[in-house]
Write a structure and sequence with these properties.
The protein is of the alpha+beta class. The chain has 3 helices and 5 strands; from the N terminus they run αααβββββ.
Length: 143
């Protein structure tokens, strides 16, 4: 079984290299390394598979958040990011099958809601996110 686990380690590393920076199979390579070590001490395939699964899952849970932050690097905010949190008035209604429009800083923006609800023209909204070239808004409820 030791040879099998070494083949799994190599295969997972090759897959990881082919998917460059996506952290797809490195967790299974770590699990396979642990299973290889266990294979030196026991011939029980069940124990080896359990160790492989546990170490893979634990490494995914513990290491992935750190590595994704590290690989993402410094996120540079764009000028569009400064629109998040701003208030605006819909210049065109948001309908079930049509985005609305908002005019900010002399620029027209497409707008929709996160829950796909309809809002009439003139509704006061807050920008909560940007997806591609459209603003995601929510209605500001008047007290």
């Amino acid at each position: 079984m030791t040879v099998f686990w070494i083949v799994v380690v190599i295969a997972m590393i090759v897959i990881e290299l082919l998917t460059a920076g996506n952290l797809v199979s490195i967790w299974f390579a770590i699990g396979a390394i642990a299973a290889t070590a266990v294979a030196f001490f026991t011939d029980s395939v069940l124990i080896q598979v359990i160790i492989f699964a546990l170490v893979s899952i634990v490494s995914l849970i513990l290491i992935r958040p750190f590595t994704t932050r590290l690989l993402r690097g410094n996120v540079i905010a764009t000028n569009a990011d400064s629109l998040i949190g701003r208030k605006a008035i819909l210049s065109e209604a948001i309908d079930e099958d049509k985005w609305g429009m908002i005019r900010l800083n002399g620029t027209e923006w497409s707008a929709t809601t996160s829950d796909y609800s309809e809002l009439p023209k003139g509704t006061r909204v807050e920008i909560i996110a940007i997806e591609g070239v459209k603003l995601i808004v929510r209605e500001i409820k008047e007290n």
